[in-house]
Amino acid sequence: MNYLLLTKPRISLLFALTGLTALIIEGSFDIHSWKVWILTAAIFLTGGSANAFNQYFEREIDKRMERTAKKRPLPQGKIKPVNALIFAIVTGIVSLVLLWKLGSLLSALLGLATILFYSFYYTLWLKPRTPYNIVIGGAAGATGPLIGWAAATGNLSWTAVILFLIIFIWTPPHFWALALCCKEDYSKVNYPMYPLIYGDEATRRQILYYSLTLLPLSLSLYFLNSAGLVYLTAASVLSLLFIGAAIKVSLEKTKRSCWQLFGYSIVYLLLLFIIMIVDKMMS
Asked: Quick one: CA dihedral 194, 198, 201, 207, positive or negative?
């Protein structure tokens, strides 16, 4: 169980779902295919490896943050650091081999880039140095659809890029809502999070701008003929609710509204990608 926690399972499952969505809507595979599910597992392991490296590198920082000290296995001493590092390396290798052998070389290279980008560039360099860490680093969490599409086809498409951009644009309002609630934690470890550098008001404005961008971006899949009316209707409702939650953050200026946006943002992405699969299966 503790090794599973190293993967940040909820995050890695969402990452895998986005990859599965790309595999299904691309059209080469049926959802009942064993190959689809092994590739999805490989995408989960890609995210899991990156998250395990992240926790290994941040183990001392996690001890000092209330949000992580009692939730993660390394700060609690439940796993030795060297074992966590071995786990991160092994899961990464397994994921890349599966992507290469059952998918394509491009999917394996994208998986490798995801692990290296998130583990080393984001965790060790971006996060401690710039308030735009999550804006740039969010690219790593958005690669699931690219990996899935490349595994199915050996190349990429505009649809895959739009899926990537949806997650990329979703990440800042999702994370900044959390950052507004956990400023004290980030201040303890001297991480230059956006609210600490530019203030709460500027952060709330950015949350709203990004949330507004999600509406036309998510709907563009319909106009690219990559999704049908079921998706168009659901995406419209989900995105408008997202904007409503972001407006509430701007107007109420409370931690409660920020937590609500943070919670809804997870539901939003989960439902949006599930509906893409449902829409494809109904077409």
From this structure: negative
Angstrom distance (rounded) from CA 91 to CA 224: 36
Domain boundary residue, one of 137, 152, 167 = 152
Sign of CA dihedral 10, 12, 13, 15: positive
CB atoms within 10 A of CB 167: 23
Q: Are residues 63 and 142 in the same domain?
A: yes
Asked if 260 and 278 sit in the same domain, the reply is yes
Cα 7 to the chain's mean position, in Å?
A: 13
Write the CA distances from 213 to 92, 152, 161, 241, integer angstroms: 33, 29, 15, 13
Residues 67 and 106 occupy one common structural domain: yes
In terms of Cα–Cα distance, which of 121, 111, 200, 183 is closest to 149? 111
| pLDDT (tens digit per residue) in 112-161 | 999 999 999 999 998 888 999 989 989 999 999 999 999 999 999 999 99
From 152, 173, 205, the end of a domain falls on 152
Q: At what angle do helices 200-223 and 229-252 cross, to 10 degrees?
A: 170
- Residue ranges of the chain with pLDDT lower than 50? none
Task: State what percent of residues in the chain have pLDDT above 70.
Answer: 100
pLDDT digits (tens, 9 = 90+) for 223-252: 998 899 999 999 999 999 999 999 999 999
Indicate the number of domains in the chain. Answer: 2
Same domain, yes or no: 148 and 170: no
Provide the domain limits for residue 232: 157-283
Same domain? 210 vs 114? no
Count CB atoms within 10 A of the CB of residue 190: 9
